[in-house]
Amino acid sequence: MSAGKDIPALAVTGLSHAFGKREVLKSVTFQIKPGERVALLGLNGAGKTTLFSLITHLYNHRSGVIRIFGWEIKDRPAEALSRMGVVFQQPTLDLELSIAQNLAYHAALHGLEREAAQERAVREIERVGLGDRLHDKVRHLSGGQRRRVEIARALLPGPRLLLLDEPTAGLDIASRQFLLDHVAKLCREEGMAALWATHLIDEVDPDGRVVILHRGRILAQGPVAEVIRQTGAADLRAAFDALTQMPKAEEDA
Amino acid sequence: MKAVQYGRCLTGIVRREALRFLHQRGRFVSALVRPLVWLIIFAAGFRFVLGVSIIAPYETYVPYEVYIAPGLIAMIQLFQGMQSSLSMVYDREMGSMRVLMVSPLPRWFLLVSKLLAGVIVSVLQAYVFLGIAWFWEIEPPVLGYFTVLPALILSGMMLGALGLLLSSAIRQLENFAGVMNFVIFPMFFASSALYPLWRIQESSLWLYTICRLNPFTHAVELIRFALYGQLEPVSAAVVLGSLVVFMALAIYGYDPARGLTARKAGAE
Questions:
Q1: Does residue A181 sit in the same domain as residue A247?
Q2: Which residue of B lies nearest to A157 if distances are taken between CA atoms?
Q3: Which of A99, A154, B170, B253 could serve as A85's disulfide partner, Cβ 3.0–4.6 Å?
Q4: Domain check: are A137 and A175 in the same one?
Q5: Which residues of B touch A77 (CB under 8 A)?
Q6: In this complex, do A108 and B11 lie within 8 Å of one another by their Cβ atoms?
Q7: ipTM
Q8: Phi then psi dihedrals of residue A56, to 5 deg
Q9: Using CA of residue A80, residue A100, residue A96, residue A144, what is the dihedral sign?
Q10: Does any CB of chain B come closer than 8 Å to the CB of residue A93?
Q11: Residue B30: per-residue pLDDT
Q12: Judgement on whether residues A141 and A172 belong to the same structural domain of the protein
């Protein structure tokens, strides 16, 4: 891979998008460096899912630039997509198939060689603690276990950027913590870059970076402590409330 | 992306479709019961109501069951094509369509692979049906079982491509009931599946014209002639032409730059 040290894993610049006349993203700009875990914090309807759809090239954006390790998604989708792993908001596993079959399918979609893919699958599934369930049908797994399979699956092709769209929706506390720790570890130990979309403030790492998205605009971004300091609030929740309740005029400025 | 990666991707998509099909036994059974009900009950009832004269490719008078068998095979493929379109719509809502689309391989290739996977399943269903139908004295020449294969692949692809096209255009899952009403039933009944077109011509010329223009009629006739070792060139051309048009439109529909996915997402 050509990822030089200073090339951001994800660079979104001046990104705007509209459905018909309804603007859902307005000049969104942020970056994620390799090894960084960035929380994308926003309420439902803030534009998080649209942002994910654009980054994963479900459809093209209207204006701005999205680069994954330097590759613009619109012009070079193959290079960009081969460097990212995605965990979608909706469950996306085939319930009737086993974990192994689900993973094999995903590996094939990415053109991975079968045996190498099997080895990787075993390794990734062991890392999420489901090594003994490899041949169980997904239907027999709990919600938390399914999510872990989805993370293992996203990591199969060896991406350097991991995108997670509200990955903890509907999970219990233990499963949630497991996912948070697992992704944090990937970033810390393997230099993975991760974008973690959430509407839950307690999922934001207090020592990490946050991007606050509200009604399609970025209201604040940077290290969490910095964002809190800028708003003069006591904690991130207060900062978030203060930012999102700003009068409209100020918001447009 | 190298050719070998395309190959792996295609194999993976076909394997998944086959596994899903094997695991959904209910789907397999219902896919077979539907045409068998027509063959065993409907055909028995209409056997003496509808007289069939000698028409190509048949060399003698044939019982009604024999006449409708190719139409029922095409019906299997029509349902399979629409069902995979249903699963595409359903998949997209459930998100597994999105898993398909984050593959770094080109989207047209992913859609063609999906189409081929569905065709393999529909060809298998058609052969199982032919096997059972043999006991109801649907006994085409042995050679016919081989010559029908290319026809089944072509018609299966055409109907699958139609399904893909619809899936790119249908907004919501609920609309599959609409697909039944507005696509499956009209296509099936306004075709040569249940009655020879000359009979329709006798009763209504405009209906006859519609039937002649219906690509499903040509799928049926392609299969009918192939089952007796013959090629119907007009039907082959119409089926092939429809396949190209439907597939091109489906790929257009799923294209990230121009497609309908963006507009649909906006309507959510």
A1: yes
A2: B103
A3: A154
A4: no
A5: 104, 256
A6: yes
A7: 0.84
A8: -90, 5
A9: negative
A10: yes
A11: 82
A12: no
